[in-house]
Amino acid sequence: xxxxxxxxxxxxxxxxxxxxxxxxxxxxxxxxxxxxxxxxxxxxxxxxxxxxxxxxxxxxxxxxxxxxxxxxxxxxxxxxxxxxxxxxxxxxxxxxxxxxxxxxxxxxxxxxxxxxxxxxxxxxxxxxxxxxxxxxxxxxxxxxxxxxx
Length: 149
Prior knowledge:
Residues 39-110 form the Thioesterase domain. The chain has helices at 6-11, 42-58, 131-134; strands spanning 14-19, 22-28, 65-76, 83-93, 97-106, 111-123. With 149 residues, it is α+β, with helices and mostly antiparallel strands. The protein has one domain (6-134): Roll (Thiol Ester Dehydrase, Chain A), CATH 3.10.129.10. It is globular, with a radius of gyration of 17 Å. The two termini are 33 Å apart.
């Protein structure tokens, strides 16, 4: 299994493992990942958590099925430095959703953050096609529902 995200690739995060509802993702921090106090920026920490939780959820899905984040909560415990390692596991899975938890520790083993998230299983979209076009209703006379934008 691979992460398959240009953004995560750009950050330099590496998938260590993703199997049986668990995952591990590691990121060696670079200067552009740091905040003004020279520790991991909160956005980097949250992104790494999101990636690890999503990969844990994906590890239980069939080929051609991906996940999207429905909601996520992160509690920051202390600053992270050098290398961040995110571990995650699925706590509950239904046919359409997965509820996951994870934590991030730095290279010295310090507890950096705790994350909880809900992920929706979705059929993966065809590569190279416009996302909006793929999401169009097949019936042109269909009317949007109250939650459609």
